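Narrative summary of target 7.
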Amino acid sequence: MAIIISRELKKYSLRNGLILGLILLSFNIISFYLITTVIKSPIGVIAVPYVFSIILPIPFAIIFCYTLRALVGRIWDFRIATSGIFIMFLTAYLIIALGRDLVFARFIEPQMSAKIEKVLLDATPVALKKSGATDKQVADKQKDIREQFAMQDNITVAQTIQSQVISVIFIFIIALIFGALFKNPVGGLDAVQDDGIPG
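Modeled conformation, tokenized:
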């Protein structure tokens, strides 16, 4: 007997990835508006993006993995889990990249990068001086921030492609980890592709 990596798995993975991507995209947008219009504390400026880009997405990713497993059914070995989670996470990543970089940053907030840079340049001296940094250390850090944003503005097509490839590899590694954590193996069964050829 064999488990089928079915169109149903792909359908549910794409659907969950779309919803997860929209949720994480909204986190990105909320974080941007919080640090540029609401949060005035330097610590808050640093903490808010961390919370919205790392802390909050983790429980949502876990919930959507469980949801995907429930939709697919009890057959959820390591290979099935990894395949479905990879499709879901990759879809979510594409939604975020397209929604934030191609839509939001181009048509809604074309000055997004400049606004974030200004917020970081304003917050960095205050935060560093509170930690006992010297004026030179503050100036060096501000210089690093300017250089990082300048590099983003002048990124080439080749660098963009390289960055996307690295992101996909990273997503696959995360999918492997989540697949191992959330697998529900059924002994003695092997996964096969849609055409019935054993994997």
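The chain is about 80% helix and 5% strand.
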